[in-house]
Amino acid sequence: MRQIWLNGELLPESEARVSVYDDALMFGSMVFEMLRTFNLRPFKLREHLERLRASAEMTGLSLPYTLDELEYAHDQLLEANRPTVGPTDELRTLINVSRGTLPIYHRIVPKGAWAMMMAFPLRWVLEGTSSWYDTGVDGFIPVQRTIPAQLMDPKIKHRSRLYLKLAALEAKKPSDWPILLDPDGFLAESTGANVFLVKKGRVYTPEPRNCLRGISRQYVMDLLARQSRPAVEKNLEPYDLHEAEEAFFACTPYSILPCVSLNGRLIGEGKPGPVTKGLMQHWSQNVGCDFVKQAKGWDHAGRT
Ligand SMILES: Cc1ncc(COP(=O)(O)O)c(C=O)c1O
Fold this sequence. Notes:
Layout: E1 3-6, E2 9-12, H1 23-27, E3 30-38, E4 41-42, H2 45-58, H3 67-81, E5 91-98, E6 114-121, H4 123-126, H5 132-135, E7 137-140, H6 162-169, E8 176-178, E9 180-181, E10 187-189, E11 194-199, E12 202-206, H7 215-226, E13 232-234, H8 238-243, E14 246-251, E15 255-262, E16 265-266, H9 274-287, H10 291-298
Parallel strand pairs: 7-8, 7-15, 12-13
Antiparallel strand pairs: 1-2, 1-6, 3-4, 3-5, 5-6, 9-10, 11-12, 11-14, 14-15, 15-16
This protein binds pyridoxal-5'-phosphate.
């Protein structure tokens, strides 16, 4: 049975509980991180924990554990949950932190922040979608815009995500991926991924003002730097995406996913391009795991 780490204790999934009066539920006031493993080892755990700390600090929430303690807890979580998945699986882990309940509920629920971590098979997320690595997904500009940093900073990874949900609901099919604009009409990000485009051989990504500073985004930029092809962060318009030869998304579950059209019009030749494919290979080599091949193996596997 899967184990949940809750405030220092490992509990069977069916026994892990948080209060219905919690701030996370009442206000969507929770900060979180989502990771994945490669070969069942966590990828960029420290970077995720550092972003968690920043999100907590920015929202006035004092983390109930140090980063070292959380790192140790994450190791324990993986160890406890490795037996729940097969040898070709990976784990998706979530770290949630809430400030607890409002004072009016303290008569029912003890006050205080809590932290929780859970792990489940990554293939629950990717199953049935591995063909997207070959075909790419379709980008579209939703009516729903992103909330700009001056109103609520998207660099905080928080659960007040209704605007992202509404943008996702505008998709007509699962392979439609929204690319939200900021109030000035510049590309911001997708609902769970950062966006890149390749134009005249140079790689561009929106400047990181009105988007989450994705760990995958940073990793792509590191890979590009190592390829002596540094990414350019700048304000980008939908026009730039139309003009691009290639585009792709970067996010934890997929790592890199090609984007082959925008609002129904092909980007470049309408298929994954050489820069995107090169980055996918480079990433796979670095982590010692061909994540495309791996995802293909999950398409026909049943759920556990
Ligand atoms: C809004 C948003 N943008 C971008 C990302 C990609 O971030 P990362 O690469 O850290 O997974 C996420 C991840 O969940 C996200 O929620």
